[in-house]
Amino acid sequence: MNTFNISVRQYGVHAVLVEWPNQVEESILDDILQFIKYLKNHKLDEKEWEFIPSYNSLTLICKDKVLDFDVLKPQIKDWYSLKGEIKGVTRYVWTLPVCYDQEFGLDLEEASSFLGLTTEKLITMHTQQAYTVYCIGFLPGFMYLGGVPKELEVARKPNPRPKVLKGSVGLAGKQTGIYPQDSPGGWNIIGKCPVPMFDVKKENPCFVSVGDKIKFKPISKAEYELHKIEAEVGIYNIEKSVWDA
Asked: Where is the Carboxyltransferase domain (predicted)?
């Protein structure tokens, strides 16, 4: 069982921020997810609280009342010491199609050249990994995916684009991700995914959760156009399996 030194600090009048060691590690993320499950099962009502995990922190937001931080801080530390090892924290692997066609991979050749790789090798390496969802933010449904191999680490673009198209797949430093909507952005765009990452009309607008895994599957431009239509009419079935860590 992993236990860490955590800190708890006030985050406005309705929230607290619980922080683990300042490291990006699967073991820390696992511990955060286990603590969330413990809190939901034993201490905090999901109807009254919101739980936001990210990298090495957990934000707890009380929806309808001002918190007494002096009371809550020692409670949280006590709860963490009592949680033990929680079984049954289910994490999924989602396999998402990506077209790396030159039309979509605006920075594919430049990034490949910088890394000393052929575009084919970059695509192969990018699709061989299972990436961990460490955070969802910046935009609704924007997944910060960790686990990029060192051979694919490339710096953000010095001048961000004023508009990156929805579905664009980017690389930046140790992370990769998919833009869930049109927005400014400075990541290196290497492909495009036809599956929407966020749909406000659905009961669960973002189907992916922090702690899940993402794998990318290369597809042709023709397949991209087909899957885009399937996704728009709601008949595209995303490949999903349980992650067996």
From this structure: 6-208
Q: How many residues does the chain have?
A: 245
Exposed/middle/buried for residue 211 (C-beta within 10 Å: 0-12, 13-18, 19+): buried
Q: What is the count of structural domains for the chain? A: 2
Phi, psi torsion values for 144, nearest 5 degrees: -90, 110
At 165-202, the pLDDT tens digits run: 999 999 999 999 999 999 999 999 999 999 999 988 88
Domain carrying residue 13: 7-82
Q: Which of 171, 193, 67 is nearest to 126 (CA)?
A: 171
pTM: 0.91
Alpha-carbon span 166 to 179, nearest angstrom: 5
| Beta bridge partner(s), residue 92 | 242
Residues 160 and 113 both lie in one domain: yes
Q: Could you tell me if 117 and 125 are in contact, meaning their C-beta atoms sit under 8 angstroms apart?
A: yes
Let me know whether 43 and 25 are in one domain: yes
